[in-house]
Amino acid sequence: MACLSILLYPATMNAITQPPAWTAASVRALMELPFPELVFQAASVHRAHHDPARVQISTLLSIKTGGCPEDCAYCPQSASYEAGVPASKLMDLDAVLAQARAAKAAGASRFCMGAAWRSPKDRDLDAVCAMVEGVRAMGLESCVTLGMLTPPQAARLRDAGLDYYNHNLDTSPEHYGAIITTRVYQDRLDTLAHVRDAGIKLCCGGIVGLGEDEADRAGLIAALASLPVPPESVPINALVRVAGTPLAEAAPVDAIDFVRVIAAARITMPASHVRLSAGREQMTDEAQALCFLAGANSIFCGPRLLVTSNPAAEKDRRLLGRLGLAAAS
Ligand code: SAM
Ligand code: DTB
Ligand code: SF4
Prior knowledge:
Blueprint: H1 2-8, H2 24-31, H3 35-49, E1 54-64, H4 93-105, E2 110-115, H5 122-137, E3 141-145, H6 151-159, E4 164-166, H7 173-179, H8 185-198, E5 201-203, E6 206-208, H9 214-225, E7 233-238, H10 255-268, E8 273-276, H11 285-293, E9 298-300, H12 313-323, E10 326-327
Parallel strand pairs: 1-2, 1-9, 1-10, 2-3, 3-4, 4-5, 6-7, 7-8, 8-9
The chain binds S-adenosylmethionine, 6-(5-methyl-2-OXO-imidazolidin-4-yl)-hexanoic acid and iron/sulfur cluster (SF4).
């Protein structure tokens, strides 16, 4: 037991004055613990910081789909690949608000709007700000993911009342160049800093299943936990393999390995909401139950993610019911 505890706390930690400074090596040691020990530690941290019977529910809407100039190898919305996703224009305000109303009626507390942009044009940002204002007026939390932002753009979103900005690190710094060539890791870190400086909460996570190794998974979690302030919301996605993208034939993610990543996120970012995000449709109920046990406490509900599908609302209602979990308000 003593040796397991040593593995959990990295050497750089000063137990009295500082929180742990997580490194890829210390997160990897954590992720390699015997599975029952890892899940026990994650569940203990979860209980100390959250009600383990509550799950935060978000709903996603793609407000501007396809035709993206970036070349993220996982993404069906990149113009670089033939994934059968035609480019469309930014949705009208009324259509977006109708979807937000439906999400609220279905039990969501947060409405997340995604756009397939490298970065928004200032004219588009006006329209998105109106969407944020409309969503908040319904009593829903708002989240947008629009690509890279400048500091003035982040300030405009803050002034519109935006609660969360989603901008994922996706994988480790070392693996990033194998997945995306049209931007670098530092671009992501810069936008995260602009969002934080504007006073908007961060939603930032990554994807498992991009051909990364265990060191990369640990490196992603260490990078997230080492941000100046950890993200309030940490989406952990399992790659949804889409025909036409370079990762269409990637090896499927092993469910136990995925739970290890969730557990590591929970232990290293105790106060954050850890979202079991894309890929739930391909997971068994039992794998999802293990994720909740290991500290996941948020999901996307609704039949669509951005362009791929997600479990039907009724299926999720049954799953949460079976597990005795309730939606957090
Ligand atoms: N274009 C903006 C950007 O990339 O920041 C916002 C939209 S983008 C689709 C949002 C996130 O969706 C990506 O950062 C990635 O983590 C996730 N994503 C995209 N395609 C995915 C896939 N096939 N499987 C899992 N997650 C995916
Ligand atoms: C996140 O981490 N996952 C969501 C949200 N943030 C924007 C997106 C998942 C996308 C899955 C593939 C698709 O439907 O395009
Ligand atoms: Fe564009 Fe975002 Fe897809 Fe990358 S993940 S191709 S930036 S929409």
